[in-house]
Specification:
Radius of gyration: 26 Å
Number of strands: 13
Helix content: 25-40%
Strand order of the largest sheet: 5-2-1-6-7-8
Number of helices: 17
Shape: elongated
Length: about 400
Amino acid sequence: MNLPLQDLRILSLEQYGAGPFGSVHLADLGAEIIKIEDPRFGGDVGRHTPPYAEDGDSLFFEAFNRNKRSIVLDLGNPQGRAVFERLVKVSDAVYSNLRGDVPAKMRIRYDDLKHLNPKIVCCSLSGYGMTGPRSKQPGYDYMLQGLAGWMAVTGEPDGPPTKSGLSMVDYSGGIVAALSMVSAIHAARRDGVGMDCDVSLYDTAIGMLTYLATWHLNEGFEPRRTHHSAHPSLVPFQNFPTADSWVVIGCAKQKFWERFVGVLGSPAWALEERFAIPASRYEHSAECVKLIEDELARKTTAEWLPLLEAAGVPCAPINTIPQALREEHTLARGLIVETEHPRFGTVRQVASPVRAGTPRAEHVRAPRMGEHTETLLAELLGTGTDEFAELTRAGAFGVEEQ
């Protein structure tokens, strides 16, 4: 089938989570992602991430690397570097997720490669970017969620600063990198000139502060953790305990509030002036939420949800991850895909949410380290058996253990 990005070729010096998460969406859309793995260090560190890891295969790695190809190259070796430069000539982009100062050291920025291919795009996704006082520091999702203020607004008010249960800075940073790279490739094809994309997890995390940052910068608003993950301005819009578990209810509009109190049986307090309009409910949020909690505690989540849904009130149960993966809507949207793996058998994993036309019908497992080295170089560079053997002897693909 024709896929939207099947005419893109990206050389990727990626590893672990953020980088591969960004490119897996492009791979699902048809882009040719060529993972360049360093044989000196066992390739992508995600290959060895426990649990469910053995001999360079891991289910962690599978989750981030389907539909890609892998070659091994030692870029510190002159012959390995030469092969890399030949690949740059026939590619659209070089993508990496390394510390901010490393692309310069490895000579993989636009100024380092433009003589080989004037249209090459060089996208770096790092912890803190290529400039600034933290550019030489390693940056990970946990650090960024703390540094950018996310932990300060996550969790209960009387609890400790809390990380999101998912690595949302990593994943968001990967998507920002993918968007930056595709945009740059579009411009390079239009103008004939490539460029650098200096993307960072830090920039992503700060950028996602959005309206909380705007409120603070202009009005001095101090964002804080809220009771049961309540929205900072909309009431009610938060988690509520029921008789047996939890439910999320969000009255983002006045009509939803009116429908909601109808489901509650229109208790007398709901008609009081202090709860009549959004601004009044915000001013009296603690009292309003307490009264709602008392009402919702009278029934189970399974009893409340049909009533709320029938009335058109925005709501959802608070699922566990296993429950979320079993949701009817998850299956209906085709969000579980399968690949076949020689070690793990049929591997089921979540699909990319990026949609452009008809989604890819079939997926290919993540590659073994260096699985495509010989065939891919023959295909793209015309290397024959003799040349490949000579490159191997020269250490282009690492030094074989004796």
